[in-house]
Amino acid sequence: MVARAHTCTPRTPGSSRQVDSLNGRLLAHFGSLANWPLSSCRIEDTIQNNRKTVHSRTTPETSSVQPSFERSQNAVRGRTLRTSISPRQGSHRTEPTRQTWIDQSRWVAIVLVVVGHAVGMLRNDSALALAISNFVYIFHIPVLVVLAGWGARNLQADGSGLSKITRQLIAPYIVFQLIAFLFSFIFEDTNPSWTFVEQTFGLWFLVALALWRLVGPWFRGIKNALLISVVISLLAGLTPSIGDFLSLSRVLFFLPMFLIGPWLVDRISEWRSDPRSRALGLVVLSAGLTVVIVFGENFWRLPFLGNLSYESLEVSNVEGMLWRLLAMGSGLLMAAGFMLALPGRPNAPTGIGNFIADAGRDTMYPYLLHLPLLTVVGATPFVDMGHPTLRTAVFVAVATILCIVTVWRPVRLLTRPLVEPLWFLPRIPSEHERLKANSNSTS
User: Fold this and answer.
1) Which terminal residue of the chain has fewer beta carbons within 10 Å of its beta carbon, N or C?
2) Distance separating alpha carbons of residues 151 and 135, to the nearest angstrom
3) SS3 77
4) Could you report the per-residue pLDDT of 31-61, keeping only the tens digit for each?
5) 112, 109, 131: which is closest to 389 by C-alpha?
6) Are 238 and 317 a contacting pair, CB within 8 Å?
7) Considering the entire predicted model, what is its pTM?
8) Cα separations in angstroms, 102 against 167, 334, 344, 354, 373
9) Residues 301, 131 contacting (CB under 8 angstroms)
């Protein structure tokens, strides 16, 4: 038996330049033909079929080819691209699709941070404040760390990466550390320590995020990075010496959550389309709240902070490791539940949803600006006025309003020299951004 060779479909005369441009740009978008499981003949057949399809249309319909390319180019820059040519099975996208729920989650998590700090001043007086504080401290930082890991998934250990760390984290950290020294001296009569290796209240996250971004590219290049980070996190609790120095205790405690962030966020993007997954997320959050309410004053919050050694927790090393695993696991589980249960439909945000998504891109403002205000409020009689439950409700409302006001454009313009002190410096594009720009220009 003689095998029949596959023959290419012959070209037909009078092919349109527009169609040639169409196929050429398609091939430019998808790289070399060697990377695709199609023979050159099949590629040629596909091109001929495209010609036949376009020539069979009327002139008005053919004129829609160019606009469709504009849409496809936009899709390559951030949306899902749908074409008749698919990559080989098993390939993975290098650019996860950004959805509005990611920014919405970030802003709501920052609101929980501010609310947690506000009601934390009332923990000793109000059962409601105690329950709110214990509940949000389980998962609000894990949510931010996971999203930060996703946001830094393409960050490289190069000049651009170091420039971003300096502009976005180190510079505002120095400014607000100085502000904290000033406010503590004025309102609490505390002499400044003038040290920057140990952070004042709330600023540890900037230092931790800078260190995570520095070590993230290194961890991405090794096998079993997540397992190694968990082992490091457990070992970090053995010594109390690292403590608050550069927030190393918290840096290592939350490091596994930062590394798992890109994978988890991509999975949640898929799971959010399933109503059963959304319901499961709500069940997880409800279970956590139930535990907090049932235990009440006996709920042990300290292991979830990540800043204490096993010795400081007054437990054995084995018991401390078990507590740390429980805190990391439950925090990550509730963070996933929170991101799943967050209201909203994919690609169909409401007006409120759009506002929250926009606010989620400027969370540095409510995060940093509320810290000196806490010092001011703590020095006033407001923390002792009125019924404890009513006072807690007022603090929650004011904290939420503060998070809304601080992302308002006039407030951001006014406070930008503090929050983004190096905003005037030119931005250095990363290698990933340069490659993407070159790809778009050649297409």
Assistant:
1) N
2) 25
3) coil
4) 433 333 333 444 444 445 544 444 444 433 3
5) 131
6) yes
7) 0.75
8) 23, 16, 11, 12, 27
9) no
